Amino acid sequence: MPLNKNIKSNIFNHLGPGLLFAGASIGVSHLVMSTRAGADFGFGLLWALFLVHLFKYPFFQYGPRYATATGESLLDGYRKLGKGVLILYFLLSFVVMFTIQAAVTIVTAGLAINLFGLTDNPITWSFLITVIGVVILIFGKYKLLDNLMKIIIIVLSVSTITAVLVAVFNADKTYNFTQILPQGALEISFLIAFLGWMPGPLDISIWHSLWAIEKKKDNLEFDTKKSILDFNIGYLGTIIMGICFITLGALVMFGSEETFSSSAGLFADQLIGLYTDNLGRSMHIVIGIAAFTTMFSTTLTTLDASPRAMSKTVELLTKKDNKKMYWIWISVLFIGTMIILKYFISEMGTLVKIATILSFLTAPFYAIINFLLISGKHTPKEWRPSLGMKILSYSGIIFLIGFNVWYLSNL
């Protein structure tokens, strides 16, 4: 028995970056996009969920693989491929980082209003949530973030799966699993946005590589094999949660003709209200916790990841190591997010749509660059992709470019 506990403890200690990846990914893409996919199309977009996870898999996995195999982040690798690659990454990230942070924070704020009350002002809650996140990062740094995410993911998983089981048990009608290819500009735009942030934007692979390096500092036994296992566990979690939220949307909302408000507070009320109306008032706290932990995990991880990536990029471009750069970028992100929420909150729906579509349009760039880097001379031979991974990578690049062309041709 002690031996089994020891083994479980060791496995748990080696988890971290993969769960941070899951925490960053399971947010707007799952709670909002997957739920809406289920509400609007029933189970008809499951094909999109599985295909996008399959074809994005290698490019996400190359983040921790490269980091632990070389001891450096993907950003270091991008610099080796050319300064222009790094500059392009910087520009793309700067364009969307404030919108993404504002989007995940305002949804978290709406859920906090529903769950905790105190004030119904989403800006006040957004400020409090961001301050709490910054305090966690200041005092706990990576290690606390790592440990806290393990707790958050467990709470998220248990509460979400509980809600799904109750929804399945209460279902009183049969559902059609015929798969659907959306038609028309609005439906196609939704599909592209869904694919763009499912399970997350491909630049999360860069964040993952940075987290893997931090994990390696705290745990010297965290090697490439363990990092891939850690990633696979986190990635499997994003698939399961995606299925759960599509199922909840399909079982609870499909055919309800409910249209979601663009207001964070009203959206949270509608979302949780629809669930509790169908599953029972006793499920309010379960749904509330599932939704809030989903979004808080995303808000916290993006608050750490964007400044971490931007500070590393500046360091590589200027060839200067500034220990305060991470905190400077957290301050910039904090201020930029608050400005967007203060002056553009009424346009958040449009901004989120632009950010999600832009994430999909830029996905081929990250896919190609990650594949070139992991396959080239900068990666040790034993950790370059196998033939199977190369075939999957080529297929993924074709898939991403193909859907880009299809979307642009239907504008």
Question: Mind explaining what this structure looks like?
Answer:
The protein has 411 residues and is mainly alpha-helical. It has one domain (51-409): Up-down Bundle (Amino acid/polyamine transporter I), CATH 1.20.1740.10. It is 80% helix and 0% strand. It contains 16 helices and no strands.
Present the secondary structure layout.
Blueprint: H1 2-14, H2 17-25, H3 28-41, H4 46-70, H5 74-81, H6 83-116, H7 122-170, H8 184-196, H9 204-218, H10 224-253, H11 264-279, H12 284-318, H13 325-343, H14 348-361, H15 363-375, H16 387-409
Helix pairs in contact: 2-7, 2-9, 2-10, 2-12, 3-10, 4-9, 4-10, 4-15, 4-16, 5-6, 6-7, 6-11, 6-12, 6-13, 6-14, 7-10, 7-11, 7-12, 7-13, 8-14, 9-12, 11-12, 12-13, 15-16
Q: What series of H and E elements makes up the topology?
A: HHHHHHHHHHHHHHHH
Tell me the CATH topology.
Answer: Amino acid/polyamine transporter I
Give me the secondary-structure category.
Answer: mainly alpha
C-alpha-based Rg, rounded? 20 Å
The pLDDT mean sits at: 82
| Distance separating the two termini | 61 Å
Shape label: globular
Summarize the main sheet. Answer: none
